[in-house]
Amino acid sequence: HMLSLRLPLMSNCSPLDIVQGKFSSMIPKPKLGLRNEHCWHNREQVIEFCQNVRLNRQEAAFGADIIAGFPTETDDMFEDTLNLVKDANISYLHVFPYSSRKDTPAAKMPQVPQAIRKQRAALLREIGRKNTENLYLSMMNTTQKVIVEHGGFGRAENFGLIRLEDNLQVRSEVSVMVYKYENNILHGKML
């Protein structure tokens, strides 16, 4: 089964389930999340969640959606976010600077200057790029199960993007040997 974990998706999965040893019942689920609709988790819980998942699935990779420069975000708060991404080793980031929407509660809060929002988003994207590169480099010379997508690409179990040399049927599962990393893409040969 594919195990792609995106941290801030709404789900009924709690990091406490992982901590309390209920992880094995969750393995088949294709996506797990750390945020219920009205339930937030702290930094330590996120890191512990990632560590516990990796104890069971070393190849697991994590993704997060992050708003940079949300109103009232201080330098210290942003530094905490950077450190969380590093400490939890989150590879797949979807980062965007906060954009104010008229007549919303956040629009009435003290705003982070636009230039700082963009700068923070760029820093987060760079850390995510480095984390993804490290993940991809760790996949070199390994055999990966891949789901074939359109255009000669496929996705590994940890969502790694792999260019496939062979013309394969879309949605088929194949085993490939990863032999090259270039321009943020892995390359693999079917076994």
Key words describing this protein structure:
191 residues; alpha/beta; four-stranded parallel sheet; 26% strand; disordered N terminus
| Helix-and-strand structural type | alpha/beta
Spatial strand arrangement across the major sheet: 5-6-7-9-8
Radius of gyration: 18 Å
- Uncertain ranges: 1-38
Q: What average pLDDT do the residues reach?
A: 82
Number of E-state strands: 9
Q: Strand count, sense and closure of the main sheet?
A: 5 strands, mixed, barrel
Share of helical residues:
25-40%
How widely separated are the two ends? 19 Å
β-sheet strand percentage? 25-35%
Query: Which overall shape is indicated by the principal axes computed on the Cα atoms?
Result: elongated
Reconstruct the topology from this structure.
Blueprint lengths: L3 E3 L8 H5 L11 E2 L10 H14 L4 E8 L6 H13 L4 E6 L16 H25 L4 E6 L4 E4 L4 E4 L8 E10 L2 E6 L1
Parallel strand pairs: 1-2, 1-3, 3-4, 7-9
Antiparallel strand pairs: 5-6, 5-8, 6-7, 8-9
Helix pairs in contact: 3-4
Question: What's the short story on this structure?
Answer:
This protein has 191 residues and is an alpha/beta fold.
Give a description of the structure.
The protein is α/β, with parallel strands linked by helices. The strands form 2 sheets. The protein has a 5-stranded mixed beta barrel with strand order 5-6-7-9-8. The protein has a 4-stranded parallel β-sheet with strand order 2-1-3-4, covered by helices on one side. It is 30% helix and 26% strand. The protein has helices at residues 15-19, 43-56, 75-87, 114-138; strands spanning 4-6, 31-32, 61-68, 92-97, 143-148, 153-156, 161-164, 173-182, 185-190. It is elongated. The two termini are 19 Å apart. Mean pLDDT is 82; it is low at 1-38. It has 4 helices and 9 strands. Helix 3 runs parallel beside helix 4.
